[in-house]
Design a protein that fits this description.
heterodimer, A: 133 residues, alpha+beta, six-stranded antiparallel sheet, three-stranded antiparallel sheet, 4 helices, 23% helix, B: 394 residues, Elongation Factor Tu (Ef-tu), domain 3, 10 helices, 19 strands
Chain lengths: 133, 394
């Protein structure tokens, strides 16, 4: 699966897609692969304030819980309700139907420090090399 | 997002099949100091591996397990006496070719480790022990058998141990051995030729709650890889998949089989763990017996129960358990979604007054308390075999 060039990516494997002042946030294909079968997703309520680098929810696979960190600050305007009954969307379509929340960004320039698609691909390729070393 | 798998370090120990697991693209984790596969994306991952074992067949590399042989010294009977002293079950009841679940205890009646004792001969036993406790166990066995006339051998590095598990395991393995597997009952074993290798231990044992076998072959890489490949090839028609420690954990949890440092440990005693039926107080003295007699008289302070969350959430290892009034009463030892039951199940220690099936409890899942209920265990029991038509009409 490719990593869209117009998304921005964190080192903790979240992605952000900006559309005007609103950002959609999810976890990357690499992240879902590392997690394995996702069985539970816990997301913030609408109106919740996200703070850059702080945990805003959890994704659980059969074997572990992983926190999700906010790639940028802002206010939650929508949470993906479909994930309650279909958490497996995070595995099957992490960059699309498996999105987590939509956020009204507090400061869009925060995203400038994140990686773009090619930079993120290089980053995970490096991680893969370390793991097999 | 946190990375689930901690990056593996070079000082981790490796089984002879390590390179093969990596070649298969397995996700590797540090398990008790061993670099082990947790799941194989090429098998479809943990959930698919779990289902393969329940419905068909799967294979696990369990070469990290330890093996201790205790056999005759100068006079016959020394090894049996040593095993009887070391382990809580009654090894004198074993026939040659039979195995039993047992445990080695500290003098205070808590667990050094749980073990499977195989009786190889009149005065010849093989103890299969856990990976994470190998060194401690071997030291413990040597110390506590020094006054017995027996020989203790650490054979842990001599074997590659493969667990072939699931209702079709017998069909797969039958293609590779020169002996009939059908007469081998659960927890019995034989020696036979496996993949052309003579005199290999073939045991109808496992850690999945399913029918299956564990085979012990020489631990050199070439032999290990050849046998692994032969089992995969023989199992192809039955849909065999390599399985990792992730599925091993969910399978054993559904079957309520104990895991060291979770349901059993050096601070949990036999009665608390509910392993009474494997502990034979009447067989004579053994390490831990007098403390257990005292504990029995004093009464249980906590007991292991099965719970199921009734609200949305997964109870996991270490989570706190509360009664319905909000009082903290215990802790979860193992918890996971159950791939077979599609429920979130867990084992937990609670005071006996909360152990009745149906009792409502709460589990603290990250600052939130969610409702759970005590349920019967094991969570999963394998279906009884239906007698073949021919046999029932005969």
């Amino acid at each position: 699966m490719g990593y869209p060039a117009n998304f921005r990516y964190t080192k903790e494997h979240e992605w952000v897609k900006v559309d005007g002042g609103t950002a959609t946030i999810g976890i990357t294909d690499y992240a879902q692969g590392e997690l394995g079968d996702v069985v539970f997703v816990e997301l913030p309520k609408i109106g919740a304030k996200l703070e850059t680098g702080k945990s805003f929810g959890n994704v659980e696979s059969v074997k572990a819980v992983s926190e999700i960190y906010a790639p940028a600050s802002g206010e939650v305007t929508e949470a993906n309700a479909e994930l309650t009954s279909k958490p497996e969307l995070l595995n099957s379509d992490p960059h699309g139907a498996g999105w987590l929340v939509k956020v009204k960004l507090a400061n869009a320039t925060e995203l400038n420090s994140l990686m773009d698609g090619p930079a993120y691909e290089a980053y995970i390729a490096q991680k893969g090399k370390e793991a097999s070393a | 997002m946190d990375s689930v798998t901690s990056s593996t370090q070079t000082e981790l120990r490796r089984t002879p099949l390590n390179a093969l697991h990596r070649k298969l693209g397995a996700k590797m984790v540090n398990f008790g100091g061993w670099d082990m596969p947790v799941e194989y994306p090429s098998s479809g991952g943990l959930m698919a591996e779990h289902k393969a074992v329940r419905g068909g067949v799967g294979m696990f590399d369990v070469s990290h397990m330890g093996d201790i042989r205790i056999h005759t010294g100068k006079t016959p009977g020394g090894a049996l006496a040593a095993v009887q002293h070391l382990c809580m079950n009654d090894a004198s009841k074993l026939a040659i070719g039979q195995a039993q679940y047992s445990a080695m205890l500290y003098p205070q009646g808590t667990f050094v480790d749980d073990v499977i004792v195989h009786r190889l001969g009149d005065d010849d036993f093989l103890l299969v022990i856990n990976a994470g406790t190998r060194e401690k166990d071997i030291q413990w066995v040597r110390q506590n058998t020094s006054s017995f006339d027996c020989t203790v051998e650490d054979l842990s590095d001599a074997y590659t141990q493969l667990a072939i598990q699931g209702p079709r395991a017998v069909d797969v393995l039958q293609k590779l051995v020169n002996t009939s597997l059908a007469p081998i009952k659960n927890y019995w074993f034989t020696h036979g030729t496996v993949c052309g290798l003579p005199n290999r231990l073939i045991a109808r044992t496992g850690y999945t709650g399913e029918d299956g076998f564990e085979i012990y072959v020489p631990s050199d890489v070439a032999t290990s890889v050849t046998v692994w490949g032969a089992v995969i090839e023989a199992g192809r028609e039955f849909g065999i998949v390599p399985c990792g420690l992730g599925a091993r954990n969910t399978l054993r949890l559904e079957a309520k089989m104990a895991l060291y440092e979770h349901e059993i440990s050096d601070s949990i005693n036999v009665w608390e763990a509910g392993l009474d039926r494997y502990c034979k107080m009447e067989k004579g003295d053994f390490v831990g017996r007098s403390a257990l007699a005292k504990a029995s008289a004093a009464g249980l302070k906590r007991t292991l129960v099965g719970i199921e969350t009734v609200e949305r959430g997964i109870a996991r290892d270490g989570y706190k358990v509360f009664d319905s009034a909000g009082e903290e009463i215990g802790v979860v030892t193992s918890g996971s979604p159950s791939p077979t039951l599609c429920k979130n199940i867990a084992l937990a220690y609670v005071p006996p007054e909360f152990a009745a099936v149906g009792t409502l409890l709460c589990v603290e899942v990250r600052s939130q308390r969610i409702k759970a209920q005590v349920v019967p265990t094991p969570f999963y029991k394998r279906p009884k075999k239906i007698a073949p038509q021919a046999a029932s009409t005969a």
